[in-house]
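We close this part of the discussion by returning to an individual protein. Part of our work consisted of pairing the sequence of a single chain with a tokenised description of its backbone. No coordinates are needed to read the tokens, only the vocabulary itself. The amino acid sequence and the backbone structure tokens for this protein are reproduced below:
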Amino acid sequence: MLLLSLATAQELGGTWGTAGAEAEYYRIVDLPIPRELALEVGSFCTLPDGRLAIGTRRGEILLVEGAGRAVPELKVQRFATGLDEVLGLGHRDGALYATQQTELTRITDRDGDGRADRFETLGDAWGFAHYHEFAWGSPVTPSGSVYVVLGLSESYEYKAPFRGWAFEITADGRSIPIASGIRSAGGVAANEHGEMFYVESQGPWNGSCSLKHLRRGGFMGHPASFPGYELPLAAGMGKKPLEPNNQSRLATECERIEQLVPYAVVFPYRRMGQSITTFRPDRTGGRFGPFEGQLFLGDYSLSIVLRATTELVDGVWQGACYPFREGLGNGILAVEFTAEGQLVTGGTNRGWPVRGNRSYVLERVEWTGRTPFEVERISIRPDGFVLDFTLPVDPQSAAVPENYRLGSFTHIYQEYYGSPEVDRTTPRVVRATPSADGRSVRLVVDGMVVGHVHEFDLRALRAADGKALLHGDAYYTVNRIPK
């Protein structure tokens, strides 16, 4: 499998300990898939007619009816077989777009019998030399393009053309290189604002898992991909970036390497996932609860779902991540919203250690209709942050600066695997001002640090009705402080 170092099951991080409380607001429902399918989900796509398309690690595409029904009764149809590790699915004009290890394929059913009968290669500009050279594909964009991000050979090396690169593949089959420096991706899609992002895994030149903006012409941080600049197809990318200095800091190197793209959202290792994978924005119109427009991400190792929000500050993307739901049945490789507004999750337990060790599991997370007291989002301001809440906060507890415990840290930008959390500081809240309706608090903070993750411990806060936060932790990555 993919995404993790060779670890033992004992090395998985601790749970948040909130699964029981989370179930009051978001329940997990098993979707009964026939066990003989040996389902290992690699990707999802919700079709215009409401069916769920599933791309599998075993090279199949399945079409599923009934995944969103109140009492799920599933009808499964095998649409295509013989593919290779389908880690991306999209739909446009009656065709499915499947990202395989070696190509992007447009697949259609011309005679209407429910089975694929036409397979067209849209893009295969990259090389393939090892099973651990994963290709992740986005949904089809409004313009008809699919974005593909390519992992390095065996997660560490460049053994085939364009390993560690990202491509835009257009509807007419043009393959356009758009970024280099990828190590081992876990998914690619548009963020809540429509910009393309991808998930990067912890490893060499990546201190922790992160969400990164897939900026055109960008260098995502891993120099093993540099040989790709010598290929004729990469001519539009411009000159090769400078070599990064080993054991530096990412913010420092961004000042000297113009193409280097900082992490938009860092997921503190083990506390907020260990192998982040695919993400989708909530476009359910409130049917999934109070987080409309936010990103929901899976994690393979810890079998959890997280939330994230992003914002553009002085031309650079940054944002925050938040706990959401733990206790899923297997390692999550894909998430997707159903037409009914639930979040379907799927993956595998085959490969690296995973907490949810059930085999062949398909599950959905659905809102119970009750609103948890949560930090809805964190946004930066020139002198601090604004915290929005899902329910009104108690104005007395919210006005006490000492009720907000902040810390900050960064990682070593280095060629070695991962990084400890270093350069710790303790920013201080000097003033906290709740809004009149109690739904937000304005914090004035002394000691914000550019290039650092800012961790928030908010356990001392209470809702207006006295309830504690369901999750008291959140983490904001500061790349820019607005002027």
